[in-house]
Amino acid sequence: MSFRLRLKGYYQRKSARLLFRKPFLIRLQQPLISFTFDDFPRSALLVGGSILNNVGLAATYYASLGLIGKEAPSGQIFVADDLATLFDQGHELGCHTFAHCDSWETDTETFENSIIENRAALNRLVPGAEFKTFSYPISLPRPRTKAKVASHFLGCRAGGQTFNVGKVDLNQLSAYFLEQSRNDIQSVKNLIDRNRQDGGWLIFATHDISDHPTPFGCTPEFFEQVVRYAMGSGARILPVIRALEVLDAPGCRQVRTPPRIVASAARVSVSQPSLKPLVSILIPAYNAQEWLADTLRSAVAQTWEHKEIIVVDDGSTDQTLAVAQQFESHSVQVVSQPNQGATAARNKALSLSKGDYIQWLDADDLLAPDKIARQAEVLDRSRGKRMLLSSPFGQFMYRWYRARFVPTALWSDLSPKEWLLRKMGQNLFMQTATWLVSRELTEAAGPWDVRLRGNDDDGEYFCRILLASNGVQFVPEARVYYRVFGYDSLSYIGVSEVKRDALWLSMQLHIGYLRSLEDSPRSRTASLDYLQRNLFYFYPDRPDIIRHAQQIARALGGELGPPHLSWDYSCIKSVIGWEMTKRIALELRTLRKSANKAFDKTLFSIDNLIHAARPLDLEARVVFTEPLPPVKPI
Ligand SMILES: [Zn+2]
Description:
Elements: H1 3-18, E1 23-26, E2 32-38, H2 42-54, E3 60-63, E4 71-72, E5 75-76, H3 82-88, E6 92-95, H4 108-125, E7 133-135, H5 143-150, E8 155-160, E9 166-169, E10 173-177, H6 185-198, E11 201-206, H7 220-232, E12 236-237, H8 240-246, H9 261-271, E13 279-285, H10 292-300, E14 307-314, H11 320-325, E15 332-337, H12 342-352, E16 357-360, E17 366-367, H13 371-379, E18 387-390, E19 393-396, E20 404-405, H14 416-426, E21 437-438, H15 439-445, H16 457-468, E22 471-474, E23 480-483, H17 497-517, H18 521-534, H19 543-555, H20 567-576, H21 578-611
Parallel strand pairs: 2-3, 2-11, 2-12, 3-6, 7-8, 8-10, 10-11, 13-14, 13-16, 14-15, 18-22, 19-23
Antiparallel strand pairs: 1-9, 4-5, 16-21, 17-23, 19-20
The structure holds zinc ion (ZN).
Zinc ion (ZN) binds near residues 39, 96 and 100.
C-alpha cells in the first residue's frame, strides 16, 4: 500500500472516530451480543437466520433496497418476499443506504439522499416499517456524513474488529467482521470471553452464510459454532435495536416493543408435538402460604404444555396446603405428609413423578413463563440425556420485576470437573430451579440425602447429578427468579447445630466428589479455599469440626488459618474476642436483611397500589444493569 493511501486510511479512521460522536456509557452486568448481516444476501436470512431462530434468537439485517434481487459481491441479495420471513422471525431490518454508497467516497448530500431513498423504498414495500439503526457501507464515514447520519438513526454501526465497552460512540459502534476470522474460531471465542469479562456489547457482522461463502461471508458450521459459544457465554443475544433498548440508549423508550420471546417459544413447541417430553415440576412446600400461589401460577403458566406439577406439603402449620389445593387439576397434584424436612419432601415428589425431565422449584421462587420451553428447545441438539441444562437466575425479595441477574463463572457451558472447581474455588452456587434434569440423570444420582436436613441439601444433590452427567449446558434465555430472605430461609445457617452438622457433612462430600473427578494441585487448592471460606461457621465453638477440617487440609497439602473477617469486624475482634464478634456479625447481618426486606415489601405495596393488580408478566421487567450489593460472607 502506498504512503498516500496509508496516510488517507489513517486520517479517515482518526477523523471518523473523533468527530461528531454520540457518547454513551456501556458497563453491563450481563454482556450483550448482536449478530448483524450487511447487504442482506438471501443466505444470511435463509441459512444464518434459521440457525439463530432455531435457538430462539434474532439478528439485524442491513439492507440496501436498491440491490434487491441482484447478484452482489456478497452473493444473491434478498427479494421482497423475504421481508415477511424476516419480520415474522423477529429480526430487525436496518438501513445500509439505497445504493450501497461508499461512506467515504460519496459526498455527504448524495449519501443522505440515498438514506432517504432507502426509507421511501421500504415504505412502498412494507407500509409503516421503519429503519431505526444503520450500518455504514464499505468504509468509515466522512465526518460531515457522520454528523448528518446521526439525526436519522438511534445507532450506527461501523467496523473496527472489537466490541463496545465503557465510553462508546452510538454514532459509530464497533463491530467484528466474522469472515476475517473464519478459519480461526479461537480468536472469536477469545473476543466473546473478553466481552463477557468486561461487560460489553459485542456486535458481530458478516454477509452471506453458505457452504461456499464469498470472501465476505462464512459457512453455516462456523456461524453455528460462534452462536453456540456466544450463547454459552451468558450474554443476552439481541438485534441491535433491542440491545439499544436494553441499554436505555437515548430515544429508545419510544420504540420499545413487547418481546417476542413467548411467541417464538410457543411456535417451537407447536411444531414438534409428537416429540415433546413430559416435564415434572416438583415443589416441596413448608409454611409457604405467603408465596406458594405466585410460585404455582408461574409453574402453571409455563408455555411448555406437556407438564405435570406436584406439590408436597411437608406438614405445614399454616395455610400452605389449602393454598395448594386451590390449584388442584388434572395437571396439578397436591399431597401432604407429616413434617420430615425438605429432602424427604423432595424424595416424595420425585417418587410420584412420571416426567422425562425434572424441574425442581422451591415454594417461594418463580419461573419465567418460557423457562422450561427455552431449555427444552436445546434438548434436541444437546448431547443426549446425560446433558444437564442450567439457566440464569435473578435475586429478589418482593419486587420480582426488580430481580438482579448477576452472571457468575458458572453461567457457561462447562464440564463436570470445571463446574465443580469453579463452584468450590470461587464460592459460587446455582439456584435449584435453574436446572432441568433428565430422568436418566436423576436415576443415576440417587435420592436426596436426608442426612442433610436443613442445609446445603441441594448443593450436595446437584453435585451428584453433575458427576453422573456429561456436562452442563447453560441456556441463557431461560430465567429463574430466586426469592432471597436470608435470615428466615432454609439456607440461613446462623448457629443452629443441626444446620452446621449438615453443612460440614455436605462439605466433606463436596471435597470427595471433586477429588473423585480430579486429584491435582488445582483441585486441592479449590478444596482448601472452600474449607477456609466456610470455616467461619464453625469457629471457635466447634473444635471437633475445626480439628477434622485441619486434618483434611493437611491431607490436601495445606493449612487452615483463622477465618477471615471483613475489616469492620477485625478491629473489634481484638477487643471482645472471636465468639462475641461472630455473634455481633450474625446479628447485624440478620438486622440488615430484615431491614432490606421490610423496605422492599413497602415499595412492593406502593407499586401494587399504583399499578393495581400487577400481572405476573415476568418477561417484561427484568433489570439487568443494576447489580445487587454482593452478598459477602461476613
Ligand atoms: Zn455492505
